[in-house]
Amino acid sequence: MRPRAIIADDERLMRDQLRARLNEAWPELAIVAEAHNGEEAISMVKLHHPDLAFLDIRMPGMTGIEAAKQLAGLCHVVFVTAFDEYAIQAFEQGAVDYVLKPAERSRLATTVDRLKARLAGPVPDLSGLLATLTQQLGSSTPTKKHLQWIQASIGQEIRMIPVDDVLFFVSDEKYTRVQTATHEALIRKPIKELIDELDPDHFWQIHRSTLVNAKAITGVTRDVTGRQRVLIRGSNEKLEVSRSFNHLFKQM
Q1: Measured by CB atoms within 10 angstroms of the end CB, which terminus of the chain is less buried, N or C?
Q2: Whether this model's pTM surpasses 0.85
Q3: What pLDDT is attached to residue 88?
């Protein structure tokens, strides 16, 4: 029989990206369900009886760590994480594997090889590892989770762009331009939605159609009429500031 798995992540883009990468690296694997949080993951495992559960560590409501405790003995667990330091040291020492966000082909291929070997054996006891992760990362319900990745079109290719790499977003009627220091991409998400999803301390709205990474602002110019324009690190563009947002730059 084909091996079966579920994916649990509160970010749809991350679920889509991991599913696509798994389909490339392990076409025999059947993704039988997707969940938005730990509680849904537990329900999906009990309903579908998969061999594997890919669990995002940080999810609202019930985290991946908390879900894994309740899934003990039911299936093999693979943690999906954006953490690449101390947590991974724990993974390397335990009988569990991990996938870094966003899933990279080479690393996922290694994970798949390990998982194929582990599926031949019993589900390991993760109590020691889960205790370590709980201590290091905490298992409390996280506060509102801001958008971390942008799935955007660059030519004919779809890429996952870390929001920290974005210099600014500028919208027109159909698309929003995503500008990094090295690439320009397009998404079909309006500024209004981005405002709700991005961290307002990091991305400032300076115009009804423009959001700017505050860390990328190098200065502000004013013309003879007092109209302000923002200067952006790594870009020659000067972004207009509408009068309703002039207060952001009073001290500049």
Answers
A1: N
A2: no
A3: 62
